[in-house]
Amino acid sequence: MRAGAAVCVVLALGILGYWAATGMHFATRTTLPPEPHLSCAAAADCGEEGDACEQGKCFDAFGDPKAGKEWREGYELGLADRAGPAAGGLLLLAGILFFVDRRKRRAAG
Amino acid sequence: MKHIRIALAAAALLAFAAPALAAPQTLNVKGQAKWVSEAPVEKIVGTADGAGVLTVDLADPSTIRGTITMPVASMKSGNDQRDDHLKGSDWLEADKHPTIDFAIGSVKVVEGPKGDAVKEAKVEVTGKFTLHGVTTDLTAPATLKWKGDKVKIETAFVVKLADYKVAGKQGVVGDKVGETIDVSVVLKGIAK
What we know:
Chain A is an alpha+beta fold and 109 residues long. In chain A, 46% of the residues lie in helices and 14% in strands. Chain A is built from 2 helices and 4 strands. The two termini of chain A are 16 Å apart. Chain B is of the alpha+beta class and 192 residues long. An 8-stranded antiparallel barrel of chain B has the order 1-2-3-4-5-6-7-8. The longest helix of chain B has 21 residues, at 2-22. Chain B is elongated and about 85 Å long. Helices cover 15% and strands 56% of the residues of chain B. Chain B has 2 helices and 8 strands. The interface between A and B is medium-sized, with 23 and 23 residues.
């Protein structure tokens, strides 16, 4: 039971560590905003007639940097809706396991 | 005599063509708005689609008129649950007020037009902005660029949620959602 509680604590710390390492976002994002300056390999990747691809970045027909329009695949773990409840639940479970284990040991000894 | 006839014909052609060239053109624009909410707890970045039918005489950018519409349903912030809340009864009530509209009333040219291949004019656009069923006067700086018949409009402005009776859940505005939202819009179209 103690080992189970320890695993729960380690998992909770792991979740919080991952959350901290990935930018400490408040809410989870399952897609990421469009690129501020669209990347390209060729002008055709930029989407519109007259667009140009220079040094891997898109420029529109007016010569301005072109931003993407599509949300990108990606994931940012948020504290409020995922990391917090998950880590909190695991720590609560660890606490219960420690408590039960202590009571059992006391009853036995 | 032949030269005089040609000259007269050319003059007549120009006389007919000039008003046609100066006539307002229809401009179907499409693009995207980026909106940013900055609050102490959280910064939220989102987008919304924008489109509109405008009329403009490119020789005089102050002639732009028309309405730009953004469907509330197109708003995205990268979190489905938050997007549902945004469109729900506590926030923008998309079922009752499905669009955000800006109807251009007047345009003042601040600078330009200048440039050769790409013409550019800085303007100040005043119109009626409708959000959440509330309409207010809004003035925003904008940049109008055109190259041939291709036209690009860029603008940025700030929306104060309280002005549009967007209250949100109690305690959220000012904490997790900014009291004001920064909006920047880029629209492109072809004048016909």
